[in-house]
From TrEMBL:
Pfam family, one: Aa_trans
GO CC list: vacuolar membrane
Localization, UniProt: Membrane
Organism field: Perkinsus olseni
Name used for this protein in its record: Amino acid transporter transmembrane domain-containing protein
Keyword set, alphabetical order: Membrane, Transmembrane, Transmembrane helix
Membrane topology value: Multi-pass membrane protein
Length: 161
């Protein structure tokens, strides 16, 4: 979304290109744990068929590539796809980046054995981080909803004209 608001210039084109390359090359890193978990379940499901184990693994990888391609095609054809991504990001990213880590740290095992001063300070910081995550998520969510309504009003105005 931000790169589309930049002026048309060679530098902007390079920025968009490197942004796309960054997403392209970090996708395997982000999806590796997911693929490992799914592949492990897949292998357990087909464990009885030892002779076709390698074939099942290749079929699984091919299915992942096809699903990824279908998602990319859907993303190209969905109007205002950036707003959908922003909506998902406002909920999921604030949960993953701020709320859940602080919540897990707040409920850590062995917390009672820590020094009272340090424990209280750490708990207070965790609560501040959780509050920040909730507020940031709500602000981002509200701006995204505002973007949805603005796009809908513009589309209605164009259709009426």
């Amino acid at each position: 979304m931000i790169t589309f608001n930049l002026p048309v210039h060679k530098l902007t084109s390079f920025l968009r290109l490197f942004y796309c390359l960054g997403i392209f090359f970090t996708y395997p890193i982000m999806m590796f744990p997911v693929f490992q978990l799914i592949e492990h379940k897949w292998q357990r499901f087909f464990a009885a068929q030892e002779e076709g184990g390698r074939r099942h693994q290749m079929v699984f990888r091919a299915c992942l590539v096809v699903v990824t391609g279908l998602i990319a095609l859907m993303g190209m054809n969905v109007p205002n796809f950036g707003l959908y991504l922003s909506l998902i990001g406002s909920v999921c990213c604030t949960l993953l980046a701020f709320i859940l880590p602080a919540l897990f740290h707040l409920n850590r095992p062995g917390k009672r054995m820590e020094d009272d001063k340090k424990r209280i300070r750490a708990d207070r910081l965790d609560k501040i981080i959780i509050a920040f995550g909730v507020v940031a998520g709500l602000v981002s969510f509200s701006f995204t909803l505002k973007g949805f309504f603005t796009e809908e009003q513009e589309a209605t105005a164009k259709a009426a004209a």
